[in-house]
Design brief:
The chain is α/β, with parallel strands linked by helices. 46% of the residues lie in helices and 17% in strands. The strands form 7 sheets. It has an 8-stranded mixed sheet. An 8-stranded parallel barrel has the order 27-28-29-30-31-32-33-34, surrounded by 6 helices. The two termini are 43 Å apart. Bound molecules: adenosine-5'-diphosphate and magnesium ion (2 copies). The site of one magnesium ion has 2 residues, from loops.
């Protein structure tokens, strides 16, 4: 099998390749193979090919993970053989042999999926050690302390990850030995002490697993590999993937790599870092290291690591090389790199590189800096910022005046910027429970562990007492864009007692705490917040000149505008919303819901009179009162849009939404009657109740709403079109540009639209005659019921534009009521029937096919048909990609989502083609 033929003639019917080698300047894989090799494997291959110092090893592909699950936790013999061959190859490259007592090869077994999932899966170091090999390692290195330190680490990691023995069981023994010897730090233990630790660990492993600790390295390797595959499906990994929408089926790769040792003494160490500050984006070498340490020691917060710049003093040569390599990596990947390294006896080894997770704030700073440094083009810079992360820049900060008034209780490391304020909870579970009760919480922990992820996700901020800038809490906090402070060392946390102490102040569960993730200051109080700098500029209270971050944000979005094809409009009902949307860059309104104006001050009684009227004359009287109010609203909205198109929808919701609740009225009537208060008040209540009962519907969502209202009460459509067109005429007379688009909702029959369009056109003719001016206007419809999509070709004979109302379209395509779906959608997601909530992100297969059909049939009739979308999906990144693909003209989103939509539309244009 291992016989190699040189014949190039025909490709042999060689079996699929499942294992990829890297070492000595050459790798089977490269950076483009993340699907197969995972991010870590692809990075190791790429670095190897680039000639960087990477310990040799091999990657077992993600396909094997899927096979492992398909075969019910078995690996086929052929793949086992392929792995064994690679072990041999690795032994050769390393010049050492697994299990040898002369020169034992030790390896790490590391997980690594396509998307990095920090701390979600498990790594095992120093595999290959056993009772004999450890003596061999000692002899060879003349360093007994090191050999036994490595062995105890191995037993602990293997015991925990593979044999599933809780970490505490080992920690307990370790602490006992430390205490007995009066050792403060791990590094204070000598060989003798570590031998004792190893003995105790082996006993623990045997007691808990019921068998002796496995001594055969080949057996160890198989067990470790399978444990990595199993960890893919552990609860926290599943939760992590759910939060980040990572599919389960992609699987993880396993990397087996020769060990290098940061724990041989004071000329060795290990560390992690970033090529730029991932919290602020500042151009500075950023990271931490520990002397005489291994692997996760830096991130686990066991000892406090040193800032990476101090490495320059300790080991200048290695530091210089590290800077050179990482700068090169940043240029090569054209992105900030998050790297891991180990120094063994002053020799540097690179163990990982990947694009660094960063806050939204840092992402914008880095992208704009990269362009200034000519590292990337504007087009590439756009793709460096996750559209969703822009939201972080809009989050409020503290009011500086208020903030100053309160004394600082303690300061920690500013791991992730932003203002957090809320009630203190000490566990992730509490964080979730309290949040479900509508409270805002700050999660305070000694340190966070990957199992805390659900609590971190819901908290306003994360505050830990230990850990450095690359600890779990810091990395995850930044990635989630959550304000985070770590290593607030003065904080003494008593988790069991649900309290913490800072100096002489005691903080109990439920007390308010606030902190600033940019400065690292923590205060024990609730502090009022202030809008973000960007929002201040956008709303005109701060000059753009004074805000560096606003200018960068604006620059980035202006680049994005150059590349996007989709237009960006806003869903805005009132002039001030329209103003904000325009300032955020919306050019046009995709949906102005007229009924929202009905809720304005003093209007509800008039609206109720309109609804309660049981004859046309009374209804017209009420409508006459509404007309000037609506006209003023429309005037304001048009004006704020500075001549961009404004789509106004005629009345849509079931009328009972404007009336008091039937149950409340019944109570009122009964109360008046028992109190003996007969007379006018009672009669009015009774009349109201009667009409409310008449209007009562069994299923209002499918009832008398949308175009059906305009058809049964044409005078409503008349009034609304009059208000729109009179407002438009007024602007036109004032010399301003105005483009009204009148939109009829819930159309399924072309005749419905024709009926309404006739009314609008008649009113328009009247208004233009009265006003002595003419305004160009369009009449179109919302496409939001399946019949509308199916008969879009007919509807387009009347409609001058379509706007897909994907909220109703999702309800009606699925037959899910949006307001009731909460009860079962979660179960559907848990059972993997649905990946995502179809109301948040468009179901491209079903609802999306409806949209595509509407587009195609509509354009067949009318090639220049304007096509938009105004559902909730208009602000969702994944949905925007889809709308770009089906060729819509624009998306419309709520004002605060406009920046996200602008950037997402550019991403779509740069990564998918229309019609793909
Ligand atoms: P994670 O995905 O959680 O970062 P890794 O697989 O990167 O896990 O392993 C964690 C750490 O273990 C690395 O940062 C590195 O310090 C250490 N490590 C992994 N493999 C080796 C190796 N071959 N030699 C030395 N240290 C290693
Ligand atoms: Mg790990
Ligand atoms: Mg790592």
């Amino acid at each position: 099998m291992s016989k190699k033929t040189k014949a190039k003639s025909k490709p042999s019917s060689k079996a699929r390749k499942y294992v990829y080698f890297f070492g000595a300047g050459k790798a089977d894989g490269n950076r483009t193979m993340k699907d197969l090799l995972g991010g870590k494997g692809a990075g190791l291959a790429e670095m190897t090919n680039a000639g960087l110092p990477v310990p040799p090893g091999f990657t077992i592909s993600t396909e094997v993970c899927n096979i492992y699950y398909k075969e019910k936790a078995k690996i086929p013999a052929a793949i086992d053989r392929e792995i064994e061959e690679h072990v041999k190859k690795l032994e050769k490259a390393a010049g050492a042999t697994l299990g040898s007592t002369e020169n034992p090869l030790l390896v790490s077994v590391r997980s690594g999926a396509k998307f990095s999932m920090p701390g979600m899966m498990d790594t095992i170091l120093n595999l290959g050690l056993n009772d004999d090999a450890v003596e061999g390692l000692k002899r060879r290195t003349q360093n007994g302390r090191f050999a036994f330190d490595s062995y105890r680490r191995f037993i602990q990691m293997f015991g925990n990850v593979v044999l599933e023995i809780p970490k505490d069981a080992f920690e307990h023994e370790f602490e006992a030995v430390k205490k007995a010897r009066g050792a403060k730090l791990d590094t204070d233990l000598d060989e003798q002490a570590l031998r004792e630790v190893v003995d105790r660990y082996k006993k623990t492993a045997k007691a808990k697993s019921g068998r002796d600790f496995p001594q055969d390295p080949h057996q160890q390797l198989k067990m470790a590999r399978d444990a990595v595959f199993r960890s893919w499906m552990n609860a926290r990994a599943i939760e992590y993937r759910r939060i980040y929408d990572i599919p389960d089926h992609i699987g993880t790769a396993v990397n087996v790599q020769m060990m290098v040792f940061g724990n041989t003494g004071d000329r060795s160490g290990t560390g992690v870092g970033f090529t730029r500050n991932p919290a602020t984006g500042a151009k500075e070498f950023y990271g931490e290291f520990l002397i005489n340490a291994q692997g996760e020691d830096v991130v686990a917060g066991i000892r406090t690591p040193q800032p990476i710049r101090e490495l320059e003093q300790v080991m200048p040569k290695a530091y210089k090389q590290l800077r050179e390599i990482t700068t090169r990596l940043e240029r090569h990947y054209k992105d900030v790199q998050d790297f891991e390294f180990t120094i063994q006896d002053e020799k540097l080894f690179m163990l990982q590189t990947r694009s660094g997770k960063r806050t939204g704030y840092a992402a914008v700073v880095i992208a704009t800096d990269f362009v200034a440094e000519k590292l990337v083009t504007p087009k590439e810079a756009i793709l460096l910022v996750d559209p969703e992360s822009l939201n972080q820049l809009l989050a409020p900060g503290f009011d500086p005046g208020e903030w100053k008034k309160i004394p600082t209780a303690t300061t920690g490391l500013p791991a992730s910027p932003g203002a957090a304020s809320g009630q203190v909870v000490f566990t992730a579970d509490e964080a979730v429970a309290w949040t479900q009760q509508g409270k805002q919480v700050v999660l305070v922990r000694r340190e966070t562990v990957p199992d805390d992820i659900h609590g971190m996700f819901v908290a306003q901020g994360i505050l830990t007492a230990t850990g450095g800038m690359t600890s779990h809490a810091a990395v995850v906090g930044r990635q989630m864009g959550k304000p985070s402070i770590v290593g607030a060392a003065r904080l003494e946390i008593d988790e069991a007692g649900r309290k913490a102490r800072v100096g002489d102040q005691v903080v109990k569960e439920g007390d308010y705490i606030s902190f600033d993730g940019l400065s690292g200051e923590v205060k024990i109080a609730q502090v009022a917040s202030k809008p973000s700098e960007i929002l201040q500029v956008v709303s005109g209270t701060l000059s753009a000149k004074k805000s560096d971050i606003y200018r960068r944000f604006d620059t980035l979005l202006t680049w994005a505008d150059k590349f996007r094809r989709l237009g960006i409009r806003a869903n805005a009902d009132l002039p001030d919303q329209a103003k904000l949307a325009y300032a955020f860059g919306a050019r046009g309104i995709g949906l102005c819901r007229t009924e929202h104006m009905f809720f304005g001050e003093g209007r509800i009684p008039i609206v109720q009179r309109m609804i309660l009227a049981d004859n046309e004359a009374d209804r017209r009287k009420a409508l006459d009162e509404l007309l000037p109010l609506q006209r003023d609203d429309f005037y304001g909205v048009f004006k704020e849009m500075h001549g961009e198109a404004v789509t106004i929808r005629t009345i849509d919701p079931p009328l009972h939404e404007f009336l008091p609740k039937r149950e409340d009225l019944m109570v009122d009537v009964a109360r008046l009657e028992t109190a003996g208060k007969l007379g006018k008040a009672l009669d009015e209540k009774k009349a109201l109740l009667h009409r409310v009962e008449q209007l009562h519907e069994f299923n209002p969502m499918l009832g008398h709403r949308g175009v059906r209202l305009g058809i049964t009460y044409p005078e409503i459509t008349e009034m609304q079109s009059r208000a729109i067109l009179e407002a438009a005429c007024r602007l036109q007379k004032e010399g301003r540009k105005v483009i009204p688009e009148i939109m009829i909702p819930l159309v399924g029959l072309v005749k419905e639209l024709r009926d309404q369009k006739t009314i609008v056109d008649r009113v328009a003719a009247d208004v233009f005659k009265e006003q002595g001016v003419k305004v160009k206007y369009l009449v179109g419809t919302m496409i939001e019921i399946p019949r509308g999509c199916i008969t879009a070709d007919e509807i387009a004979t009347e409609a001058q534009f379509f706007s897909f109302g994907t909220n109703d379209l999702t309800q009606l395509t699925y037959g899910f009521s949006r307001d009731d779906a909460g009860k079962f959608l979660k179960v559907y997601q848990d059972k993997k029937m649905l990946d995502r909530d179809p109301f948040a992100s468009i179901d491209t297969v079903g609802v999306g096919a409806m949209v595509a059909m509407g587009v195609e049939r509509g354009r067949k009739t009318r090639p220049d048909l304007k096509l938009g979308i105004c559902g909730e999906h208009g602000g969702d990144t994944a949905s925007i990609h889809f709308f770009h693909k089906v060729g819509l003209t624009y998306v419309s989103a709520s004002p605060y989502r406009i920046p996200v939509a602008r950037l997402a539309a550019a991403h779509a244009a740069l990564s998918v083609k229309v019609g793909d």
